[in-house]
Amino acid sequence: MLPANIPAYFKKRREILGKKEPQAAFFFPSNRELIRNDDVHYDFRQDSNLHYLTGFPEPESFLALLPTSEAGKTHRSILFVRKKNPEREIWDGERYGVEGALSTFGMDATYPIEELDARLPELMKGVEKVYYRVNFDESMDRRIFEVLERYRRSQGRSGRGVIPVVDPREQVGEMRLFKAPEEIEFLRKAGQISARAHVEAMKRTKPGMNELEIEALIDYEMRSKGCQRLGYGSIVAGGKNATCLHYRSNNETLNDGDLLLIDAGGEHQYYTADITRTFPVGRKFTDLQAKFYDVVLKAEKDCIALVKPGIAYTTIHQTACEILTEGLLSLGLLKGNAKELIQSNAFRRFYPHGTGHYLGMDVHDCGLYMLNGESRKIEAGMCFTIEPGLYVQPGDMEAPAEFRGLGVRIEDDILVTATGCEVLTKDVPKERAEIEALKS
Fold first, then answer.
1. Of 45, 229, 357, 432, which is the active-site residue?
2. What is the mean pLDDT of residues 266-293?
């Protein structure tokens, strides 16, 4: 059965957004259903912004927030949805329909999606600006610009052009950047479930298994414990495959003596975790692997220790680069003066990515990283990853042979609190001794 009610925070979010620009309209189309092959679809997942503002889960839907003169309100919430269709529902599942969407999702009005083009120009009276994400869906772009042209013509011979269209990602992104209590609980739950899945992978990985088996194990553990889907495609990279940052083949045999890097996170109620751990396929790290691993672990732990309101976000990455550079010098992978090596970005040969990203409904979540040309300061309620790593490419002939093909990344999810931070993914170990104890 379909849910019969929706939490009040969805309506509150729409009210907050509307107050930002009382004379603007905000348009949010749903994600499209995509064909995988022939008549087989990819699993549908609602657009994050549309879900954030409505909770409505169906495709072929469209939210319009439109200015109103009603007392105590800045905007009306109007949702266009698919009509009820008993024949299609036999095949595809139950739909809310126009009436069900109105009663369940706290809208001011709902209409069939087929009426979008005809109704929008009539509903736009008084609109001075439209927030809409162009280039997300070409067919929807055409429909929206035809609507705006019809609206322009309906105003008579005014001499004005089509009203401005502005990308809404910054407006909504700044709202989504700061997590409300309900969002924190979803992120915490996603982190806990995902951490347990990583622990099971550590326990059960054995030489001779295939990367695909571990991917299947992680998928099962996350879904069976409460995640509706994965937040992104899992990376299960044994040996030299760990040096490919977005390795996705996940089809090679795991060998004793190699390390296994797993980057995987489950999505709970549309909020995702993002965890990376690197551990031995066999029972123990070799001495060389341990030294290499400890450099990355120190960088990750020291960066987490920095997190508190008021520090510049870029400080985290700068700190990681300094620690990793010192480690690369101690390992003999770099030579020279640490300060000069950092200034020349010499470390990027072994550390080509950033030290983290915002986290929420999307694994690379929205929100501005810079304000007024400077790194923004961290504030309570923000959530992001911290994920230093080191990678020696198999074909790097300048590196000592024993390091070639070695890749390590350690990643946790961090919630900024009023006085410091909470590590949402702390339940999966990263100390070498704890990892080896799991595998003994």
1. 357
2. 98
